[in-house]
Amino acid sequence: MKTCPQCGAEQALDAKFCTKCGYQFTMTAPGSAPDPAGQPAPSQPSTGQPGPTPASAPTQPNENLEKAKALGKGYWAWLVAGFKHPGRPVQASSQWFGLLSIGLIGLFNMIAVIRPLANTVNSVGSSLSSSVGGLFSSQVQEASSTASSAIFGTGFRMLILFIVIGIALATSAWLGKRVISGDTSGYLEGLTEFAYRISPALLLSAIAAVIGLLSGLMGLPLILLLIGAEYALQNIAFFQMALTQPTYRGMDPQYLLFLITMVTGIVNIILFMLFGSSLFGMLSNL
C-alpha cells in the first residue's frame, strides 16, 4: 500500500490516481521502490563528468595503402643495399624496382639539364623586362613565356631519351648474361639486377638534379660531369653482369661482348638521331 501525499488516503501500490482526491501519482521506473509518500526514489546527483562511452569498433586499415607502404620500404631497403654493395646483388621484393630506378635516373637527369636553362631564361627575361619597360615589356614577357614552354617541351623529350637509353643498356646487360653466362632469369629480373648494380648512379643523378634546381648555366659543367660518371658506372655494371659466370662454349665471351656493345652503340646512335634532332632544334629556337 502507499499513502496519497495530498489527502493521506491509503491506495494500492500500482494505483495511478488517488480514489479519494484524484491525485496523480508519479510513476517510478521498473524495479525502483517508491518512498513512503508514494514518490519515486531520488536520483543520484550528477557529478558533471561524462559517462563512459561505448568502445568504438577498430577502423580497418586501407589494404592498398598498406601495400604501397610495404613496397616503398622494400624499395628503399633494396636501394640502400645497392648503395653499399652494388657488386653483390640481393633479391628484390618486386620485379619492377629496376624500371623504377631507371625511370628515376632519367627524371633526375632531365631536371638537372633542363632546370638551369629555364632558370637562365627566366632571369634574362626578368632583366630585359625591367630594363626596357613600357611598350616592349609585354613583348619580352611573352617571348620569355614561349621560351620556357619550349624548354619544358624539350625536357619531356629528354626524359624519354634518358629512360630509353637506360632500358637499352639494361637490356644489353641482360642479353649478355643470358648468352655468355647461360643465365635463365626473366627480363624484368635482369633489369632489376642491372638497376641494383647502378644504384650509385641514381644517387649521382639526384645530386645533379639538386644542383640543377639551385643553379643556372654555371652549374652545367658539374652536372655534365656527374652524368658522365653515371654512364661510367652503367658501363661497369654492364660488364660485371654479363661476365658473372662466363662459359666458354661457342663464340668466345670477348667477341660476344664486342658484338653486344656494338649493337647497343648502334641503338643509342639511332635514339640520338630520333630524339636529338628535335631536342637541338627546340633549343636553337630559344
TrEMBL record:
Residues 44-62 have a biased composition (Polar residues). Keywords: Membrane, Transmembrane, Transmembrane helix. Residues 29-62 are annotated as: Disordered. It comes from the Bacteria. The chain crosses the membrane at residues 96-118, 155-175, 195-214, 220-243, 255-280. This is DUF6574 domain-containing protein. It comes from Lacticaseibacillus jixianensis. The lineage of its organism: Bacteria, Bacillati, Bacillota, Bacilli, Lactobacillales.
